[in-house]
Structure of HTH cro/C1-type domain-containing protein:
Amino acid sequence: MSHTRWRLARERKLTEGYTESEDAAAERAEIRLAMAFAKAVYDRRKELGLSQAQLAERAGLTQAKISRLEGADTVPTLPLLRRLAAALDASLNIALDDDREEVTFVAHSAA
């Protein structure tokens, strides 16, 4: 069989009228949010030129905790979000909608 004829199971199910359960859709949304947050932390840390260890020191965390956050392996608490935003010298914006999750750190201006 040629590779062009292969289809992912999800694609095949969707083309056959398969609909995802509400639980699966909710879990997929949670994963997207965790990944968006992880990417936002990583991007802002790199923008500042910080290592994970340096960010951890600024936030009063361990390097392992930063690694888990950037790997989307942990769910941050509200106090942790505040500490990260302060350590990254930024405001944290989270936009949640039915079909999108957006997480951004907006740098504080040097005014």
Summary: The domain at 10-107 is CATH 1.10.260.40 (434 Repressor (Amino-terminal Domain)). The chain has five helices and two strands.
